Amino acid sequence: GGASALILRTEGLTVRFGGLTALNRVNFDLQRGEIRAIIGPNGAGKSTFFNCLTGVLRPSTGRFLFNGEDITGLPPNWISQKGIARSYQITNIFPNATAIENVRIAAQSRRHGWSLLTHHRAYRDIIEKAEAVLEAVGLRGKGDEMAANLSHGEQRNLEIGIALATEPQLLCLDEPTAGMSAAETRDTMALVRRIAKNLTILIVEHDMRVVMELAQRITVFHYGEILAEGTPEEIQRNPRVLEVYLKT
Ligand code: ADP
Ligand code: MG
């Protein structure tokens, strides 16, 4: 049921690419309202994990439950309708549309699914929603700019806005501060904290200051498996984590 504390559970989630096991029987629990960071070396399976949760990839074996419902292998648009959204490690926006159009398209897909035959909610409501989302991600006043003309940091925040416009319960952010200046990173951290008041956040992040400051709990992936899990304090002094990750 929707009121349960457990929003996400994966059971034995496994992804193989030919001979390579990118995720190996991952059992992962996430509580509603948490900010959880996922860390681990390059190639550990972090993006693959997000790809499974958002329907981009179908796991080889295993399943995951969202609000207690098995939605493994549903296509991305259905998973979006269920309430999981994500941003990509590499920015994924429509560059030749304006900022507001990028958000509006996402808001509309949430309300109506993908069918043009479904009843149309008033255009005005969608625009209002899109404007509220732009404001929430710090892009107020930039709605009419082409997405391609926004700064790198603004584009990354626009992508968070696109995800937010689908009204998710769970937002998966894949390296949201990658390539950002120190000031942009601080802004994005503040943004994540603000939006975390209303939803659950899974964040893959390499910047350890960001991770330690934002996350309530951290899960460490290593070679497709969970190496450790705990509070930032526990992870920082976990010898196995230090060995594989923090020292490098
Ligand atoms: P991370 O995000 O932790 O850096 P990834 O999930 O991107 O790691 O990748 C995990 C492993 O799976 C890596 O060895 C990567 O090369 C491999 N991999 C990821 N996606 C694919 C794919 N579509 N086809 C083949 N191998 C892949
Ligand atoms: Mg990745």
Automatic annotation (TrEMBL):
Keywords: ATP-binding, Nucleotide-binding, Transport. SMART domains: AAA. CDD domains: ABC_Mj1267_LivG_branched. Involved in beta-(1-->2)glucan export. Transmembrane domains (TMD) form a pore in the inner membrane and the ATP-binding domain (NBD) is responsible for energy generation. Residues 8-248 form the ABC transporter domain. This is ABC transporter ATP-binding protein. It comes from the Bacteria. InterPro entries: AAA+_ATPase, ABC_AA/LPS_Transport, ABC_transporter-like_ATP-bd, BCA_ABC_TP_C, P-loop_NTPase. One of its GO terms (molecular function) is ATP binding. One of its GO terms (cellular component) is plasma membrane.
